[in-house]
Design a protein that fits this description.
single chain, 5 helices, about 120 residues, mainly alpha
């Protein structure tokens, strides 16, 4: 089943957790996933900014924006984390909710001027 995906969603998939972006084909924004499997777990929590936070700050911004625009947790799981919601809904919700909570924590403590 082909689901329409907006350009910013493709960019997010291309950027998330791929510092060297080994899964991209040339200048394309569409990641190749034939040999790459991303496994996400619950977001780690700390009372200070971590290396994990620094690597995923763009993801946090995208999650906050998606939430502000009314995206469902299901859609966020499928687009940003590539988790098949139908097969693992508990896992998908845990991953999305923990990352959203961390994004809100960072926004509150370090970026309070952001409106969404």
């Amino acid at each position: 089943m082909n689901v329409p995906v907006e350009l910013h969603e493709l960019q997010a998939l291309a950027d998330i957790g791929q510092e060297s972006r080994p899964g991209l084909a040339g200048d394309s924004l569409i990641p190749r996933t034939d040999n790459v499997v991303l496994l996400w777990n619950a977001c780690p929590h700390s009372e200070e900014v971590t290396e994990y936070d620094q690597r995923n700050i763009y993801l946090y911004g995208l999650l906050l924006e998606a939430e502000f625009e009314g995206a469902s947790e299901r859609r966020m799981a499928e687009v940003f984390f590539r988790i098949p919601f139908e097969r693992r809904p508990d896992w998908a919700l845990n991953v999305v909710r923990s990352h959203l909570a961390r994004a809100h924590w960072l926004k509150k403590n370090f970026y309070p001027w952001i409106d969404w």
